[in-house]
Amino acid sequence: MNYKLTEFEKHSDQRGDLIVFLKESELDERHKQFGQIYFVTFETEGTVRGNHYHNEWREWFGVVSGSIEVFLEDVTSKERIKLVLNAKKNKYTRLEIGPHIAHTFRSLSKYAALVNYANSEWNKEDTIAYNIALNS
CATH number of the domain that 122 lies in? Predict the structure, then answer.
């Protein structure tokens, strides 16, 4: 399945944390053009976002607040995986999702937020609705 989990860099001192979400040196040549950066928020526990996949887009997600359950499904092979990502003080994890991987996010906390980098600007024609059953 076309996804990858990576711990990302954090620098901490008495003031707090500086988190290095994604560096150019971590991108292969195909993904070095700037696309867009955005935030996604979840205002209540149980809020569901996503339910789609992309034919072209590659995305990198990181949880900056709260806890989020992630459901991934390869739309070709139907392979599925469920992950939980947290904004923990001691460890931050980045989720990279490639094309043809349907993704759905569900908040497990009262408030949650994701930061996202995509390798190109959003294109409505490249976003295909796809519902993943959240029970499995």
Answer: 2.60.120.10
